[in-house]
Amino acid sequence: MAEPRLPRPSKGIKQELDAERKERVPAGQFLTEKFPVLTFGPTPRIELKAWRFRLFGLVEREQELTWEQLMALPKTVVTADFHCVTQWSRLDNTWEGVLASELVRLAKPSPKAAFVMAHCYGGYSTNVPLDDLLQGNALFAFRHDGKELPADHGGPLRLVVPKLYGWKSAKWANGLEFMEKDRQGFWEQRGYHMRGDPWKEQRFWDELT
After folding, report:
1. Angstrom distances, CA of residue 78 to CA of 10, 34, 70
2. Residues 143, 97 contacting (CB under 8 angstroms)
3. pTM for the complete prediction?
4. Any idea what the CATH number is for the domain that residue 83 is in?
5. In the chain, what are the helix, strand and coil shares in percent, each to the nearest 5?
6. How confident is the model at residue 206 (pLDDT cuts 50, 70, 90)?
7. Cis (ω within 30 of 0) for the bond into 156?
8. Does 32 fall in a domain?
9. For residue 116, what are the β-bridge partners?
10. Full domain range(s) for residue 153
């Protein structure tokens, strides 16, 4: 027996849904159902037995976590939109991982710490205000849309900061450095904006923004 078909939404409902989705897309972006792979340099391949994650800089005590220790931390699931600086947006991504605030809590940063530098296998780095890790739904993800995060998309672990452009969601994350003053990461040294708020179109550095 054929499965019953659900009624199609009326034209008015479809327009309303489109309007709701449009409000979630910053200026200068277009929607895609795909998840393009954009990477500078080769894709690192990391064995979990050798994988390590450092918490260092302005912290009470520097630490180095194994994969097993990371997996022992509380997990969460976050559904969020993703906005790439190259102008595509993908809505309703489901990420599973450890909240960034959980790792900040574990690190016990100094009161002077106001920024972090995310470090990665392969040499990539990007700077993020500490408040952007503590507020909202930033996390270190190991699953995406119900599947293990593939290496091309930053597996085994990537930082995801939904409120900022995608280059801040660093792939192959292996450390957080806590800093008193802001410092440029890989793309920031090459002209990208220090913060990268998609709703302000902070794509490239301009001292007036």
Report:
1. 31, 19, 17
2. yes
3. 0.87
4. 3.90.420.10
5. 20, 30, 50
6. low
7. yes
8. no
9. 128, 178
10. 54-191
What 3-state class would DSSP assign to 87?
coil
Tokens of 209: 């923004």
Q: Please report the sign of the dihedral spanned by the C-alpha atoms of residue 197, residue 153, residue 41, residue 56.
A: positive
Q: How far apart are CA 159 and CA 175, in angstroms?
A: 10
Tokens of 163: 């409120």
Place of tokens 């995801």: 160
**172 lies in some domain:** yes
Average pLDDT on 173-177 reads: 98
Please choose, from the candidates 13, 36, 148, the residue with its C-alpha nearest in 3D space to the C-alpha of residue 88.
36
Residue 72 phi/psi, 5° resolution? Answer: -80, -10
C-alpha angle 157/168/151, rounded to 5°? 30
Interval 40-50: pLDDT, tens: 778 999 999 99
**Domain membership flag for residue 80:** yes
Q: Does residue 6 form part of some domain? A: no
Structurally, how many domains does the chain consist of?
A: 1
